[in-house]
Amino acid sequence: MNTLSNSVFEAFNTGSLRLPAASRAFTEIPWSRHPSFAGVELKHIVTAGDTGGQFSYHLVRIAPDKCIGMHTHENQLETHEVIAGSGICMNGDVSIPYETGCISIMPAGVPHEVHAGDTGLLLFAKFIPALC
User: How far apart are CA 1 and CA 59, in angstroms?
Assistant: First the structure.
């Protein structure tokens, strides 16, 4: 993966949430394994509790040649910002190449899946309303 892209991802990984009333270091938030997809890790950096359920932000690491299998969020619009790596997103019936700098939008109710390439994939995922 591109070193500059990795440094951008690492800046979010070690960054912070800064609100008028409080702040929280992202280093205090653990990475967790995705409950359904092997090789996928999540860091929930802005949660429903932070936003009153309006939106949530998540860092996503997908190991080389692993995937987030086909699934649907019935109530959330989801966006992906590709920070590093490459892969393919099936967004409904359309195959979208994922590469650094790509932004993809999955409307609520649209089935989608993401396959990482041989170098893995680093994403910034956002949900409206919040996923968790």
Answer: 16
Query: Are the C-beta atoms of 57 and 126 separated by less than 8 Å?
Result: yes
Give 17-67 pLDDT, tens digit per residue: 888 888 889 999 999 999 999 999 999 999 999 899 999 999 999 999 999
Question: Which helix (H) or strand (E) element contains residue 25?
Answer: strand 23-25
Can you tell me the distance from the alpha carbon of 2 to that of 6, in angstroms, rounded to the nearest whole number? 6
pLDDT, the chain, mean: 93
* Dist CA 58 CA 25 (whole Å): 14
d(CA 24, CA 112): 31
- When pLDDT is cut at 50, 70 and 90, the band that residue 93 belongs to is very high
> What is the SS3 assignment for 96?
strand
β-partners of residue 17 are 24
Instruction: Give the burial class of 32: count Cβ atoms within 10 A of its Cβ; 0-12 exposed, 13-18 middle, 19 or more buried.
Output: exposed
